[in-house]
């Protein structure tokens, strides 16, 4: 009746532990008995030759194609690498172009919860997919969250602007990607893991006549740069200190 259930009597608990230890130690990911078919080099010993070589090793990427392949295309630069992969830093010899390095300001998303985004969309009059009737609103904009269609909206311009404002004020994480495709009438939101990201300059989306700001001008202004330069003589704890938080507050 009151005895503790002992899983050790039914299965050997060391099998999983030893399997993980073996895989991490050798880099051969998979069963020890099937070492020939398992993926090699999944875990590597971190290079500690110099501090900079350690940093370089941590940002290295690998393309799992046989080094003796005759195809030249996987080794060449591609348009989609722009801003994400360093165009120069790659080894010479057989791994040339297959081993790449992330560019300096490139980062990889860790993933965030989608629930707050869905809740916000519903409060902003998003019609969830279950209630949507295509015949009633044929021109509604579809909303996708991590590739799955979650609903439709009738005023995408204001919705996108509001969600961007939330992101710029740090109410939703900065790593959430917002993509509006006007021609296909789609608004795509991505908050999943493993996306390669890079910083962008924010530009004005439309003319603001009363302030004399034209569409397409940078949101980052010379006055902000001057305030950042003046920060050198200001105590970081002071209210006058502009800093990174100042840029965030300005919505840059």
Question: Could you walk me through the main structural features you see in this protein, from its secondary elements to its overall organization?
Answer:
- By secondary structure, the chain is α+β, with helices and mostly antiparallel strands.
- The protein has 4 domains: 1-44, no CATH class; 46-104, no CATH class; 110-197, Hypothetical Protein Ta0175, Chain: A, domain 2 (Alpha-Beta Complex), CATH 3.90.1070.20; 209-250, no CATH class.
- It is built from 6 helices and 9 strands; from the N terminus they run ααβββαβββαβββαα.
- The strands form 3 sheets. The protein has a 5-stranded mixed beta sheet with strand order 4-6-5-8-7, with helices on one face. It has a two-stranded antiparallel ribbon with strand order 1-2.
- Strand 5 and strand 6 (148-153) form a beta hairpin.
- The longest helix has 13 residues, at 14-26.
Topology:
Blueprint: H1 14-26, H2 51-58, E1 60-62, E2 99-101, E3 107-110, H3 115-123, E4 127-128, E5 141-145, E6 148-153, H4 156-168, E7 177-181, E8 186-190, E9 193-197, H5 222-230, H6 243-250
Parallel strand pairs: 5-8
Antiparallel strand pairs: 1-2, 3-9, 4-6, 5-6, 7-8
Descriptive tags:
RNA_pol_Rpb2_3; 9 strands; Hypothetical Protein Ta0175, Chain: A, domain 2; RNA_pol_Rpb2_4; 4 domains; two-stranded antiparallel sheet; transcription
